[in-house]
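Q: Structure tokens for this one, please.
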Amino acid sequence: MFPPLAEGKLPTELLARLLRHTSRSPLLAVGAEPGEDAAVAPGASTIVITSDPITFTGDRIGAYVVAVNANDIVAMGGVPRYLSTTLLLAPGTTEQDLERIFADIADACEKAGILWVGGHTEVTPVVRRTVVSGHAVGFLSRAPLSTGGARPGDRLCMTKWVGLEGTTTIARERLRESRRALGEERCNAVVGWLDDPGISIVREGRVLDGCPLSSGHDPTEGGVAVGIQEICRRSGAGAIVRYECLPIREETRLLCDCFGMDPLGLLSSGVFLFTAGAAEAEDACRRLSAAGIPAAIIGEITAPGSPVLLERDGARRPMAYSERDEIVKLTSALVRGV
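A: Here is the predicted structure, written as tokens:
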């Protein structure tokens, strides 16, 4: 048995051992070491900086924190390079728990080509379960690909499928009910979505490097619906989204029915929303598909002042918008009919 860690800062010996998981590279002038206040990296003329915490799950939290921070940088057209982390651990956390989290972060960083440079870790009674916040830095070699660049007539595109992150989170957090809804084999596959296809869009960024996109976005809280609305709001435009073109997996529909959720409002890290001219959008989707990344044109951007409409079965209605992600229903949802 591993005894729980004491509250407060980690013992120096333990911290030194854990920090061996962090990146070592000539690209770092100062890496993560006990007692160092920060990491130092060579300067660059254009950098992208982001920060995102993980609070909705305790399972595979390392993979989540790397993905959501890297995705923000990719969505801006940048290449993620450095990550620092703040881990707040609940009393009762063991060294074994911490080793697992550190190894998970290290593995995800290696796969994404990111240098993990350390950060801060402590046990504190102010949290009831582990909370990790990531702070990432990346480089830009082009003009920023912001959410506000969409133009009327542009095609609206997305990779992978609606609610990817939220679906695998449901299966991981409510495994018993999910197995009843999906069957054991399909449920295990959904649990595996965290790694395959994964919730990172770093590969999308590599494939689309150099493509003349007009805007890009990483839909997280509020799902694809909020992501589309944010592009339109920032661009001062509307959109027509064709429901029949939206890639929604049957597993997502079943779990959302089970817990009373709307797939379009479900956490969607791993999806890259982007806009481009008609020909450019077709070319981008072909490139992505050729690289084994599912991609689809799901609608088009309309004139300034136009609403965001969802077209389904020939009828158009305003697309629902809620900044409250559907995943929050998980804690109080009742299983229906399974």
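A few notes: The longest strand covers residues 79-89. The CA atoms of residues 159 and 295 lie 4 Å apart.
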